[in-house]
Structure formats: structure tokens, C-alpha cells
Design goal:
The protein is 23% helix and 20% strand. The protein has twelve helices and 22 strands. The strands form five sheets. Strands 1, 2, 3, 9, 10, 11, 12 and 22 form an eight-stranded mixed β-sheet that branches. The longest helix has 21 residues. The radius of gyration is 23 Å and the shape is globular.
């Protein structure tokens, strides 16, 4: 028999970016919130003087323990899915702050095109431009409607940047100036400008200057140490939930965080959520937390899995194309790139920050003509100085022996002379890309694992080749002594790291038959249940997802506050 606790106004499941924003906004509105986080407590002090690449970057200190829970993967329905036993393609964060602690800080806004992708694509190119098996759809919201929430997220996080000349219109400038421009960034920007492209400084959650946000949270500027991705920031210069929104929620006295609390079911009756059932992993005790409103604020896989295990919403069926929970899983096309080896200059590539770099959107979204191309959308092209840490970086030209005198000589020569221009391509959903519960493999509690069915399509291969050609043009203009580039995009495989940009599964829209949540991320089938995160993305854009996730979280918080007073499906 589970121990039953007193009811709270709101219970949130997962205390990362989405959970922290929801807790901050709702407690400021007077609601009592319980936050359940299955990982441990975290503070900035945990990272003081801990520039330990082996511990964090290679042994994944901040990530989920795959021996207790993982995902299973298959490239198509004809083969059996197998568990991911070690980290590769993406990294699953765990603990207070979630993946918001170990991210790089690259904070883009999706383009206006993204939110109306089906309508705008068909309007410009005709319905035949979209392949029959591609399941893109409009998101049920426009960029202009979401813009105020982008602005709120950026001001809370103190995003440093300059206006994207090819992006959506802004209501105000970035709250802090762009980060410094390094000599290598200037080399990229000069080359891109000579090609009549539109480079701009990458928007960064690594603060360029000291900043106090509208909630009164003050943070120090970035030190350019190069330890961002896979690391917590010892200075608090990188915006993460632990140093921004969570302290605001705690200060109200209305937010209770319970760590080591693994939620296993959403409880519901009569078409409404009544609370959650979780296990205290320190004691093994099962606990029931009743609540008037339940909010899923976990990672993509966790949100989908919990809905399916709780039998909420209609599971997606790829054979019929019906159902919504698990639909439109998407990833990212990260294989378009060109690398240059330079004999005429040396750069301090060991220094940097997670979002120190230059970008351009000339080949992103529908900013270029696709009439004669065999794909839609595109990708952001960028050059970054993220900091080349010593263990993971030892790039030498193709054909160099793997050991011995020549290998050592080339390693020393090019240690600070290799620059890379990379493309981050959008990922379009297809009918046969989806998430469901694995029928065979279970976690440490005996619950089924989430299963991914996904592979790259011809759309992705064409896009990767196009972005590679564009990256190569820019790199050639940068005048390297030697250049290498991607040959072709092979099948997707789970063991090579690409990005932790998984999206979809609980997608938003205006039609309950084709989407799981509305544009406030409220479940169509259960009005007091909200599902917040990149699980709501109906496809993935040519960007990092966090900026758009943050904007949707602020809008959802507004919707939950309204629902708490009025009830009903929000419009």
C-alpha cells in the first residue's frame, strides 16, 4: 500500500528547465508546487575547481545510469530493438537542473517558418513537395504569438547576442551584448561575408557580462574556460535552472523539491489526473502525491514513457497513422561539415565557451529556394570556439598513421591549427519514426523501457550533402592549407555522439486527432494534465532546441495559472 500525502495545487515531474520555469512562475502566482526529481540535489559548489574531463566528459558523471534505465533502439520495425548499454548518440541528463546543467548554452529561436511548416511549404512549392510518408504539421501557434515568451526566457537567462539578420522579428534586443569575437571567429565571418552570406554572433547563455535578471538573480560573466558541455558551471555564468529559476521558486516558500523520487505512474480517474505515484529510491517506499494539476516536465523519452505506462492518450500506430502519443519522433542531421588545417596561423583553441561562435541562417528553414532540391528545410551553419579539451581533441589529417613519430609530429603541429565549419540540419518526422514501450526490456523497477524506431531518410542524406557543400565553400574561402569534408551520410547508428536534441512524441497542434497537446501544452484528453518539453515539437529545426523549449515553458506556465482559476480546455 502506497503512503498517501496531503494534496498540493501542482505537482511537476522533473526539475530541469521546464520544471524550474513552471515552478518559478506558478509559485509567484501563489500556487503551491511540489517538484519530483529522480536524481540528486545539485548546487554550483559541486563544480568548484572540477575541470575533470575524464570524470564528466568521458565517464558521464552528470548523466543517467544506463544500468538502471536506458532506451532501446531499432532502425526499422522489421528488427528487434536492443538496449543502449553505453552512451553514444545522445546523453540523458539526471539530477536537479536536468540537461540544463550540462548543456553548451546555444540559445536560438526557431524560425517563423518552423511553426507553420506544412502550410508555408505547400503554399510556396505545392503539396507534392512534401513526401507522402513525411508527417510534418503546423504547430498550432505562430512565431509572432510565441515571441513574447522567447523574450521572457532570454531576459531570465541573460542571453548574450546580436540580432539574426534572417531570423524572426524581435520585440527587444538581447539583454546582454554578444560574446567576444576571437581571431578564428573573425576568419569565418570575413569568409562568409565575402560570399554574401549573413554571419552573426551566436546567441549565448554563457554571460558576456555581469547581469541581474528581472527576478533579481545576479550572475557573473563567463571566464572562457572551455568546460561547458557535459559540465556544470562553477561560476554560474552559464544559465541553468539551478542558478536562475529554481532559487526564485524556493524563495516564495511555496516550492518543495523532493529529489531521489522516481515517478512511475500518473494517477487518474474520470478523465482527470488525480496525482502521481512515485518511488523514493533511497528507501524503496511507494508514495502517492495527490494534486489538482499534474505537469510533466521531463525529457522527451520520460514524458512519452510516463504517458504510455499510465495509459493516457491514444498511442501512435504507424500502420494506420492514427494515435498521438509517440508520434513524430525527430532528431537532428549533424553530419554536414568541413574541416580546415591551417599552416599560416595558430589559435588558442583550448579556450572558449559552449556558445562562443558565429552562425548564419542563409541555408536554414525556407530562407533559400528549394524548388530544385530534393528536401525541405535546411540547417544553421556555424563556427564555434567551445574549447578543445586535451583528451577528446587530437585531430590530424586523413592518412596520418595512428601512432608513431609522424602521428606525434602532426598532433603537435595541428593542435591549435584545425578549424571546423559545421551544419546543424533539421529533422523531419516520418510515419515510421516513433516512440513506444519496448515489449521485452524493462528498467530496475520492472517497468518497460521506451523504444525508438528511427533511421535517416533520403531527405536527411540530401540535406547533409547540401550543407556539406555550403560548409566547404565557406571553409575554402577561409583559405586552409588542407581541407576535409563529409563524403556522405550513412545509416543512423546509436553509438556515435551527434547531439542530445531528441524531440517529439507528445506533439502540439490545433487538431486533437493529430496532436497530443494544444498550444498551452495542455493534454486534449485530460485538461488538468500539461506535458512540457521538446516532446511538444512537431519536428526539429536546424537549431539547438532549448530557446524554443524555454519559450513554450513560459507560455505553458501562463496557461496553467489561467487554468487553475477557470478550468477547461484553454483557447
Amino acid at each position: 500500500m502506497a503512503k498517501k500525502l496531503p494534496k498540493t495545487d501542482v505537482v511537476i515531474i522533473g526539475v530541469g528547465w521546464s520544471g524550474g520555469i513552471i515552478a518559478s512562475e506558478l509559485t509567484k502566482n501563489g500556487l503551491s508546487v511540489v517538484g519530483l526529481e529522480r536524481g540528486r540535489e545539485r548546487t554550483t559548489e559541486d563544480y568548484f575547481m572540477v575541470h575533470d574531463e575524464l570524470r564528466y566528459a568521458l565517464r558521464y558523471e552528470l548523466m543517467q545510469d544506463l544500468s538502471k534505465e536506458t532506451i532501446t533502439f531499432r532502425s526499422n520495425e522489421k528488427i528487434r530493438a536492443l538496449p543502449m548499454r553505453q552512451y553514444g548518440s545522445f546523453l540523458l541528463g539526471e539530477g536537479l537542473g536536468g540537461a540544463g546543467v550540462h548543456w553548451n548554452g546555444q540559445t536560438f529561436r526557431f524560425l517563423p517558418y518552423d511553426f507553420q511548416i506544412r502550410s508555408l511549404t505547400e503554399e510556396r512549392y505545392g503539396k507534392n513537395k512534401v513526401p507522402a510518408e513525411m508527417t510534418i504539421q503546423d504547430w498550432g501557434i505562430t512565431y509572432d504569438e510565441l515571441e513574447p515568451y522567447f523574450d521572457a526566457f532570454e531576459k531570465m537567462a541573460g542571453i548574450s547576442g546580436e540580432e539574426n539578420p534572417l531570423g524572426g522579428k524581435r520585440s527587444s534586443p538581447y539583454p546582454t551584448p554578444p560574446m567576444i569575437q576571437t581571431p578564428s571567429m573573425k576568419r569565418f565571418a570575413d569568409a562568409a561575408s565575402k560570399l554574401n552570406l549573413h554571419p552573426f554572433t551566436m546567441p549565448s547563455a554563457n554571460l558576456s557580462t555581469a547581469y541581474t535578471n528581472p527576478d533579481g538573480i545576479s550572475r557573473a560573466p563567463c571566464q572562457y574556460c572551455g568546460y561547458c558541455e557535459r559540465f556544470g558551471c562553477e561560476f554560474g555564468a552559464k544559465a541553468d535552472p539551478v542558478v536562475t529559476v529554481i532559487p526564485v521558486a524556493k524563495k516564495t516558500g511555496k516550492f518543495e523539491i523532493r529529489t531521489h523520487s522516481n515517478v512511475r505512474r500518473i494517477l487518474h480517474t474520470g478523465g482527470k489526473a488525480t496525482g502521481v505515484l512515485y518511488t523514493d529510491i533511497t528507501t524503496g517506499e511507494e508514495i502517492e502525491q495527490p494534486a489538482d494539476i499534474v505537469v510533466l516536465t521531463g525529457y522527451v523519452f520520460n514524458n512519452v514513457r510516463l504517458l504510455l505506462m499510465s495509459e493516457i492518450g491514444k498511442p501512435y500506430d504507424p500502420a494506420s497513422g492514427t494515435g498521438v502519443v509517440g508520434k513524430n519522433y525527430a532528431y537532428q542531421v549533424m553530419k554536414g561539415s568541413a574541416m580546415g588545417f591551417f599552416d599560416d596561423a595558430e589559435y588558442n583553441l583550448f579556450a572558449g565557451a559552449g556558445s562562443l561562435g558565429m552562425s548564419l541562417d542563409d541555408y536554414n528553414g525556407d530562407n533559400f529556394d528549394h524548388s530544385e532540391l530534393n528536401f525541405i528545410h535546411g540547417g544553421n551553419i556555424s563556427f564555434t570556439n567551445t574549447g578543445q579539451r586535451p583528451i577528446q581533441n587530437n585531430t590530424v589529417p586523413e592518412g596520418t598513421p595512428k601512432w608513431g613519430k609522424e602521428f606525434k609530429a602532426q598532433s603537435l603541429k595541428y593542435a591549435n591549427r584545425v578549424l571546423k565549419v559545421g551544419g546543424q540540419g533539421a529533422s523531419m518526422p516520418f510515419r515510421h519514426h516513433y516512440l513506444d514501450l519496448d515489449p521485452t526490456y524493462k528498467d530496475a523497477f520492472g517497468d518497460p523501457l521506451i523504444r525508438i524506431t528511427f533511421d535517416f531518410e533520403e531527405q536527411d542524406r540530401q540535406l547533409a550533402k547540401y550543407l556539406t557543400d555550403r560548409c566547404s565553400e565557406i571553409m575554402q574561402e577561409m583559405r586552409p592549407s588542407l581541407m576535409e569534408s563529409l563524403k556522405e551520410l550513412g545509416p543512423y547508428e546509436i553509438m556515435t555522439y551527434q547531439s542530445t536534441h531528441n524531440t517529439g512524441g507528445v506533439i502540439m497542434g490545433s487538431d486533437p486527432s493529430a496532436s497530443a497537446v494544444n498550444n498551452y501544452l495542455q493534454m486534449w484528453d485530460m485538461e488538468n494534465l500539461f506535458v512540457i518539453g521538446a516532446s511538444a515539437f512537431a519536428h526539429n529545426s536546424g537549431y539547438n532546441p532549448t530557446g524554443t523549449l524555454g519559450a513554450l515553458s513560459y507560455r505553458a506556465a501562463e496557461g496553467i495559472a489561467t487554468y487553475s482559476k477557470k478550468g477547461g480546455i484553454l483557447a
